[in-house]
Amino acid sequence: MQLAWTPVANVTAAEAVSVLQALGLEYGAPLVLKSDNGSAFKSGDFGAWLTEHQVVPLLSPVRVPRYNGACEAGIGAAKRRTEYLAARQGHYLDWTTDDLHAAQRWANEASYPGGFAAGTPASRFAARVPINDIERDTFRTAGLQYERELNHEACTRGDALTDMLLAIHHRRAVRHVLVEHGYLDITRRSVPQPLPAKKCAKIK
């Protein structure tokens, strides 16, 4: 479900918090917020908003865009829809707010990413059960506990708790608790690796 496809004047924490504040009032605060390592998402103001609303941050590893693949793919699809709609109105490179809103409605109400039987993103989102305060607190407590266990195991092995290792443990803890509490389903499939050029040349 694409909750926002909104133009902003600058990529700042203030702009991000403004969008999140509006979405939070309408839909409630998220349980986990996944983002890249942009300065806006690592600022004190942004962190304060997350803390105030008990939202667990989930930052991607530095310089690993594929970790954020679903988000990147969603942005790419939103851009293509907007370009198509703008072109139909005769302003391919000059998007309007109407184009953005139409692209968002298209994604939410006229697409079936999980198959036709699964319904549209809008219908699935409408059927969700909102997270209550007890569930939110339980989730955060379980995540912190699992993260402490990972840190303790690392210290027992003699590993230095560097910022990178702490970040890895945080991501592992968030993923573990999301799955354990039934908020996240993971489907694995084999992904064929690209063949080297030399090997391709030998294939007849």
Automatic annotation (TrEMBL):
Domain named Integrase catalytic is located at 1-129
One molecular function GO term is: nucleic acid binding
A biological process (GO) of this protein is: DNA integration
What is the protein's name according to its record? Integrase catalytic domain-containing protein
Question: What Gene3D superfamilies does the record point to?
Answer: Ribonuclease H-like superfamily/Ribonuclease H (3.30.420.10)
Q: Which species is the source of this protein?
A: Blastopirellula marina
InterPro entries in UniProt: Integrase_cat-core, RNaseH-like_sf, RNaseH_sf
